[in-house]
Prior knowledge:
Blueprint: H1 6-35, H2 37-40, H3 63-72, H4 86-98, H5 111-120, E1 128-129, E2 132-133, H6 143-146, H7 149-157, E3 168-172, E4 175-182, E5 186-190, E6 196-200, E7 206-210, H8 223-234
Antiparallel strand pairs: 1-2, 3-4, 3-7, 4-5, 5-6
Amino acid sequence: MIHFKPTMWLRSLTLALISWQILNAQSGRRLFEAQCALCHGQTGGGGKGPSLLKPKLNKAPDQAALEKLIADGIEPEMPGAWTLSPKELTQVAEYVRSLGSIPPESVPGDATAGKEIYRKSACASCHIIDGTGSGFGPELTNIGIRRNSAHLRQSILKPDDILPDGFMLIEAGQTKGIRLAEDLFNIQLMDASGRLHSFSKASTTINRTRNKSPMPAYTKFPATDLDNLIAYLASLKGSAK
């Protein structure tokens, strides 16, 4: 009969646990790269989807909530991962949670100067920050935790390239805006001032423009101004209230 010393037994158990954790993390990473990286970025830094590089995710504060969110999705922007087994859901969720320990990216530029560029460029005529501005464009109050700097740069220089699936400009009669919802009989849109409208499709002439952002491409910013503006947007992590 072979007798193991307690220290040898504990060492073997520790090595087995470490090996299991490494294999689990590798499997989770492969699943993430195959299923999630297209929207969230190869390293979770964000893109079409929000950045995952934070200790606690707003919509999934713990392991169980994150597994459920991955399985169910968030309509319409995030489909549910119905092909993953319970074990795979656990692995990818554990990998996503590990991304919160990765240091956030370093963004060049002066955020204070960028705030002034935001003001002078009249960005608040289409965007809201902490309740100030118009609601026609996406709210930017916490854009710094939802998008990385590369996505912010692209959204300024080439806004048509980062439109979400299904985005559409609508002209309903004399009213122009972005489509919010639509069924067989009615269409709802928001105009440039943030007002909501609903129209009967049977009695209204509807013109649609797909894959075109209402935001112009700001390609004439000096490089320094562009860096400063991106630094300001990246600094927006949510209201301190």
